[in-house]
Each structure stands twice: as structure tokens, then as C-alpha cells.
Design goal:
single chain, 211 residues, mainly alpha
Length: 211
């Protein structure tokens, strides 16, 4: 026979346990929802890099890469703006970067032309043409850099660049003549070129060699 004390104890225990169970039944679904990670809404949303395969990269437009004529032209424009504001330090930095970009591109195109020579002359000729074009851009940047050094009265930096241009371009070409004229004005050379009345030699289109 159950005593009155036991009955009161059981009744109190049931009344306390039922509210606790009801609260757990409400809290559990909430906890389960917050523990689920958020997934991308669309398959085109950016995904984190897979650490097991970090070398898989999506291609980017050429204009956004460093080794491109667009990147070199952007640096040349920034250099021109810096010169206009007489910020020669920034102009020097931008021209050096542009020169390096064009020089690397020219060398790479020349290497491709050599690799395809005798295999596919169409590809080789195309890459050789690009090598010459980017070499011309490099020499233009080099000439502008020499002018900036001269504006700062730093002929010791301008002279080597001007000599490089003449070696690359050939003294009979327009940019080669300009570079030699700068050397003459700086007093590094004392013989003018071309001489008055001299017949200029036809330009050699095979110049603009890579350095």
C-alpha cells in the first residue's frame, strides 16, 4: 500500500518534468537549424579554394594580367601623368615597371618564335612580330625613362639607357637617332649624327633585339 507521502512526491516530480520536456521539444529544432552551415544560393556563387587542389585557377581576361600590352600602356599613362605633375620619383617607378613588362613579353615571344621555327612557320612569324612590337614599346619606355633622368640632372643614369636604345634600335632608325642626339647634348659624345649632307642608311627592320 502506497503511503500518502509517496503519492505527493510522485505528483510533484511529474509536474516538474513535463514543463522541462516541453521546453526541450521547442529548443531542439532551433539548435539543429543553427548548426547547419549556410550553402550558396546559386551554383555560380564564389566557392572557397580547395586545399587539396589549390592550383586550379579560373582564366582571367588578358587586360587584367601584368604581362600584357594593356598593362604596359597603363603604366606609361601613369608615368606621363606623374611627369606632368613633376613627380619624377613616381614617373621613374612607373617607367621602370613598364620597361620590365615589355622586355619580358618581348623575350617570351622570341622564345616562342624560336620554339615553333621549323615546326609551324605561321606561328613562329606571328610570335616574332609580337616580339619586335613589344621590343619597340620597351625601347620607347626606356627613352622616356632616360629623359626623366636627364630632367633630374642624373646623366649617369640616362647615358646607359640611351646606349641600350641605340644598340637595340640601330643608329639609323628614328628612336636611335633621338637617343644619340641626347648623348650629344649631354656631352657624352662629340660627333654629331647624322652629319650634314650625309645619306642616311635605310633602316634595318630586323633590329629591336631582346636584351
Amino acid at each position: 500500500m502506497i503511503s500518502a507521502v509517496t503519492v505527493r512526491f510522485l505528483r510533484h516530480t511529474c509536474l516538474t518534468f513535463l514543463p522541462v520536456m516541453a521546453a526541450l521539444s521547442v529548443v531542439s529544432p532551433v539548435n539543429a537549424q543553427t548548426s547547419t552551415p549556410n550553402l550558396p544560393d546559386t551554383p555560380n556563387q564564389a566557392q572557397p579554394i580547395d586545399p587539396s587542389n589549390p592550383n586550379v585557377l579560373r582564366p582571367t581576361p588578358q587586360n587584367n594580367t601584368l604581362l600584357s600590352t594593356a598593362a604596359g600602356q597603363r603604366l606609361m599613362t601613369e608615368a606621363s601623368n606623374a611627369v606632368a605633375s613633376q613627380n619624377y620619383t613616381l614617373a621613374t617607378q612607373k617607367l621602370q615597371e613598364a620597361r620590365e613588362v615589355y622586355n619580358q613579353m618581348s623575350n617570351f615571344y622570341q622564345e616562342l618564335a624560336t620554339s615553333f621555327s621549323g615546326i609551324d612557320n605561321r606561328v613562329a612569324d606571328s610570335q616574332r612580330k609580337k616580339a619586335l612590337e613589344t621590343a619597340q614599346m620597351r625601347d620607347d619606355a626606356t627613352y622616356q625613362l632616360a629623359l626623366v633622368h636627364r630632367a633630374q640632372n642624373r646623366s649617369e643614369l640616362a647615358v646607359p639607357l640611351l646606349v641600350q636604345i641605340i644598340r637595340s634600335q640601330n643608329p639609323t632608325r628614328d628612336l636611335g637617332k633621338k637617343a644619340y642626339q641626347q648623348l650629344f647634348e649631354l656631352g657624352f659624345v662629340d660627333t654629331p649624327f647624322p652629319r650634314s649632307g650625309a645619306t642616311p642608311t635605310p633602316p634595318n627592320t630586323s633590329q629591336s633585339n631582346q636584351r
